[in-house]
Design goal:
By secondary structure, this protein is of the alpha/beta class. 33% of the residues lie in helices and 19% in strands.
Length: 317
């Protein structure tokens, strides 16, 4: 199934890449009134793009879809977080667009480099990807204006990574959540925080969102927040049970002693859960019940951990 561009509200679009698994990410576009017919609108420059894609080929397809709606391309590209599956396509939209991200993300992206290409074979085979660092950074929040709509960038701190942003369009009640929520995909929090993710999930609820555009998987409503919270609460309970039992690590070859989720009816779904299970539980142990803002858990270390968790037959191709 190919990527799908869809209208989620007036002047607000989602670009979904089914089936939405790891490294197959979504993007979003906000144009409001006027931007979609080309040029700048009196109330703001044309087009705010939320995230891009992991490969040159996917980013080119995204650009074609964006330019169909917003001729000439967007004025801004917003990073929800630094991972390459959301950022490697930025070069398809610069220099016309300025890349915007929360403070600290520029350094994270520079440190990570093109590491995703070594972790995900699809990214390595996806053509010429370039590292495009943010040109504009902000702290806490930043408001952009396009086509008569306000686009609010809210830095939520550590969640999926050490630094995560949601993009809120208040006049349309739409929130682009990045990898804060993963419908149908197991969250991977090794570089972030379980307690931070739970805290971050409250923000879209407080905003009163009606439409949630996740970083992976299909667009839906606020129930996605509840589903993600349910998984994270389960991880907390599992980590606590392991701690009380004196367990310090999850043994990959043995696997968990019981089915971790009712949604693991296929081998691929089982491995998606198991790959993330040990790192997510480890984050719970490391946090010790308090907010973890340690930014030392970066791309290089998590790559090594991930490779020890992925079954050998899935590492190559």
């Amino acid at each position: 199934m190919g990527a799908v561009g869809r209208t989620v509200a007036g002047g607000v679009y989602a670009y979904e890449q089914p089936p939405g698994g790891w490294c197959v990410s979504n993007a979003g576009l906000v144009v409001g009134d006027g931007a979609a017919v080309g040029g700048d609108h009196p109330n703001g420059p044309a087009g705010v793009l939320v995230d891009t894609a992991a490969t040159e080929a996917r980013a080119r397809r995204l650009r074609q879809e964006v330019e169909r709606i917003c001729p000439g391309g967007p004025a801004f590209v917003v990073n929800t977080h630094f991972h390459g599956d959301h950022t490697f396509g930025h070069a398809q939209f610069t220099p016309r667009a300025q890349v915007v991200a929360a403070a600290g993300r520029r350094a994270e992206a520079a440190e990570a480099g093109l590491g995703l290409r070594g972790l995900w074979p699809d990214a390595a085979r996806g053509g010429d990807t370039q590292l495009t660092l943010p040109a504009v950074t902000f702290r806490d929040r930043l408001t952009l204006h396009t086509g008569g709509l306000r686009v609010e960038l809210l830095d939520l701190g550590p969640a999926h990574t050490a630094n995560d942003t949601v993009v809120w369009v208040p006049d349309r009640r739409v929130v682009f959540n990045g990898d804060l929520v993963w419908p149908g995909v197991t969250p991977y929090l090794l570089m972030g925080s379980v307690t931070g993710s739970l805290r971050a999930l409250d923000r879209p609820r407080e905003l009163g969102c009606e439409t949630v555009v996740p970083g992976h998987g299909p667009v839906a409503g606020p129930e996605l927040l509840d589903q993600t919270e349910s998984y994270l609460r389960w991880i907390e309970r599992l980590a606590e049970e392991g701690h009380r039992s004196g367990l310090t690590r999850w043994r990959r070859r043995g696997g968990p002693s019981r089915a971790p989720s009712p949604n693991c009816s296929t081998p691929s779904a089982w491995w998606a859960i198991c790959i993330a299970l040990s790192p997510n539980c480890a984050v719970c142990h490391q946090e010790g019940g308090s907010m973890c803002s340690d930014r030392s858990r970066r791309w290089s270390s998590s790559t090594a951990v991930f490779r020890t968790a992925v079954p050998e037959h899935e590492q190559g191709s």
